[in-house]
Amino acid sequence: MVTSKPRIFIVVPNYRQVGGIAKMLDYAVHADSQRYEVWFATNTNQHANAGLTAKPYYQRSPHEIQFTLLDRADLRDGDMVMISLPSDFYRVLERAKALGYPDIRFIHLIQNVRHNNVFFDKSMARDLLMKNMPRICITDQVYDAVKRLVPDEELLELNFHGFDFEFFRRPSIKANRTLRLGYNLFKSNFGEKVREACEARGLPVEFEVVPRGVSWENLRAAYHACDAFIGTPLREEGYYLPGIEALAGGDILICSDAVGNRSYLAAEAALTVGYEDVDDYLAKIDALLAMTPQARERLQAAAVDFASQFSLEMEKQGFRAFLAEHMEA
């Protein structure tokens, strides 16, 4: 396709249905809505993952996003390239070298507090932070983790992480007669340990287990079926999306502090626990069991109300302002 629109390539390592790559697809949709010709490029020889492109925001938004392999990307002078994983920056440079080094402009979307860790992505993250380019941080915690490492803080912007609130929002709240707890198996099996501990104590609770590779619709249905959600993030995360999705789905959240998720751990309906501390999780579950269904319903309604402030529309408008200031001036 040949157009007069400015072009932006969104580069990802693969098409897996995981949070960081799904967020890059959100940014592709944002850019397409703002008069850009958008290419979604990957390093691996595979078709776009059906689970990834089934993302509701992508499906319901009119767009002309095109998919390509990075080693076939026709990079030209003036093109913009957005990367998130640091090693993708160097893969883009390899492609640019093969094309005679066109004058491309980078945007770095920083999605993880681990960018300040010398061991993250084979130390490429720290190296990349020293290069001067416009950057977007997805949370205050990510911003604070990297701001002292970039050469020009004026090129570092905070565009707060949005998510598909309208899709995940539970329209009405009614607590289950028996407390129903959800957890997923996306990153660890720690939820299984909490379940086993509950069963060992004979606690009157039921469980909703969300497997890897679940469809977006079934993920939403799982949140809506529960009263509370057991968050099991890694020790450090850039955001940990299931936590905010669960709040929007009307669940009280039991979750550890993963640094990047502190914005929503401030919610009244978020109960913070120690990292993989089974006894701490059980204590919070005991507290929920001690509540009346009406008290749980109030907290569940508060969860939905709190989550409503973090929208994709907010994120899209922030990206529009970023492009106007740093890429279009």
Automatic annotation (TrEMBL):
Residues 192-302 form the Glycosyl transferase family domain. InterPro entries: Glyco_trans_1. One of its GO terms (molecular function) is glycosyltransferase activity. It comes from the Bacteria. This is Glycosyl transferase family 1 domain-containing protein. It comes from Breoghania corrubedonensis. The lineage of its organism: Bacteria, Pseudomonadati, Pseudomonadota, Alphaproteobacteria, Hyphomicrobiales.
